[in-house]
Q: What sequence folds into this?
């Protein structure tokens, strides 16, 4: 079971459906961030031989879904209900 629980993450007006959509969107953003870091790391490794620069290793992060849940719980990302965002 993933910690924190659904009850701990959700606020008033946030149901399980909205929570799952927000988690999926956040996980996708995290995956894109990880891929960008991997590309930058690869470029630095390629340049290292020509410029003498040593690159940092990419950090081992949590899996994207678990990281998304942690970010939602710690309020790094906020779930905005559709009626507040102005979208229909």
A:
């Amino acid at each position: 079971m993933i910690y924190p629980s659904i009850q701990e993450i959700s606020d008033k007006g946030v149901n399980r459906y909205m929570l799952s959509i927000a988690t999926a969107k956040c996980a996708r953003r995290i995956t894109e961030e990880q891929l960008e870091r991997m590309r930058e790391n690869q470029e630095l490794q390629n340049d290292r031989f020509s410029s003498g620069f040593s690159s940092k290793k990419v950090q081992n992060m949590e899996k994207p879904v678990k990281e998304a849940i942690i970010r939602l719980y710690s309020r790094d990302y906020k779930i905005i209900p559709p009626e507040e965002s102005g979208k229909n």
Observations:
- Helices lie at 6-9, 16-51, 64-73, 82-85.
